[in-house]
Amino acid sequence: MIVINGKHYSGLSVSIINDSIFIDGKKVDSTKENILEIKVIGDLAKLTTDKSVTINGNIKGDVEVGGSITCGDVDGNINVGGSITCDDINGSVNAGGSVSCDDVTGNVLAEGRVNY
Fold it and tell me: Are 59 and 26 contacting, i.e. CB atoms less than 8 angstroms apart?
């Protein structure tokens, strides 16, 4: 289940760019409001957003986030503008902020503190 500003969606891949919401590659909504909260309960195949996000589950592919991310395991690379707090990352990390996770199998490049 995907919840964006209190509205529920269903799918495996989420993209939120310029306040347009895409689920599994299809535009499902757009908003002129600021997107304040993005929560995912369960696993995702891929995530792309220019916002910060909290995932209560795992991501089975790559992650592109303009803000910060909190999530479980990631089976892909992570590129974020902010900080990362997660479990294991089976890929490389590029973060504009700090990185705090259990284990990383690839390279870590971070402008902030790194803890894994």
Answer: no
pTM of the entire structure? 0.87
Please tell me the distance from the alpha carbon of residue 114 to that of residue 24, in angstroms, as a whole number: 32
Query: What's the mean per-residue pLDDT of the chain?
Result: 91
64-68 contacts: CB < 8 A, separation 24 or more?
68/97
Contact 78, 90 (CB under 8 A): no
63-85 b/e with 16+ CB inside 10 Å = b? bbbbbbbebebbbbbbbbbbbbe
Domain residue ranges in the chain:
2-106
Q: What is the pLDDT of residues 46-60, one digit of tens each?
A: 999 988 888 888 999
Outline where DSSP puts E strands in the chain. Answer: 2-4, 7-9, 13-17, 20-23, 26-30, 38-41, 46-49, 53-56, 63-65, 69-70, 78-80, 84-85, 88-89, 93-95, 99-100, 103-104, 108-110, 114-115
